[in-house]
């Protein structure tokens, strides 16, 4: 979707999608590796007003990363932490209609190298999401194939 949004000159939407992609991956990794049973229950409850209110108090990104660092594989935590350090705060501006997207609209210009990096970041986040799904499958062969897949696509991913 990120690439399609860029192709359709919706660069601000594309950029915001990368932030949403990161947060969904972070939440999924946290639920799998670090969340308590109570936290998992809060996010698994049938949707109603009460469950929606309870889910508002679930951990934020900083807490999720902190608890993941203590419980999850370093190969998962490292790229998530790197993305958080380098990108999450800047992308916040796109999610909340801050200075960055307003300036891009006013200037009518989105640098191609930045768009290419965002697409590589999106691809990397997607690859990590597939790895997480492979882990959930319980099929080690699928985990291994998915983990090694990045070698074939290193030119369009942000990390080795």
Number of beta-strand segments: 0
Order of helices and strands: HHHHHHHHH
Overall geometry comes to globular
The largest sheet, given as strand count, sense and whether it forms a barrel, is: none
- Strand pairing plus helix content: what structural class? mainly alpha
β-strand percent reads: under 5%
The Cα radius of gyration reads 17 Å
* Chain-averaged pLDDT: 90
| Low-confidence blocks of residues | none
Percentage of helical residues?
Answer: over 70%
How many domain modules? 1
Distance between the termini: 23 Å
Number of helices: 9
What does this structure look like?
There is one protein chain. The protein contains 9 helices and no strands. The chain is mainly alpha-helical and 160 residues long. The protein has one domain. The longest helix has 26 residues. The chain is globular, with a radius of gyration of 17 Å.
């Amino acid at each position: 979707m990120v690439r399609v949004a860029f192709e359709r000159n919706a660069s601000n939407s594309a950029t915001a999608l990368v932030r949403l992609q990161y947060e969904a991956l972070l939440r999924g990794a946290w639920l799998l590796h670090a969340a308590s049973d109570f936290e998992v229950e809060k996010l698994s409850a049938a949707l109603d007003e009460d469950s929606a209110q309870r889910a508002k108090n679930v951990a934020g990104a900083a807490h999720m990363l902190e608890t993941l660092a203590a419980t999850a594989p370093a190969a998962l935590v490292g790229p998530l932490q790197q993305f958080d350090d380098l990108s999450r705060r800047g992308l916040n501006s796109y999610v909340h209609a801050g200075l960055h997207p307003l300036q891009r609209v006013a200037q009518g210009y989105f640098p191609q190298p930045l768009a290419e990096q965002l697409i590589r970041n999106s691809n990397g986040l997607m690859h990590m999401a597939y790895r997480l799904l492979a882990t959930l499958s319980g099929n080690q062969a699928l985990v291994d194939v998915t983990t090694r897949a990045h070698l074939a696509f290193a030119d369009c991913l942000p990390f080795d």
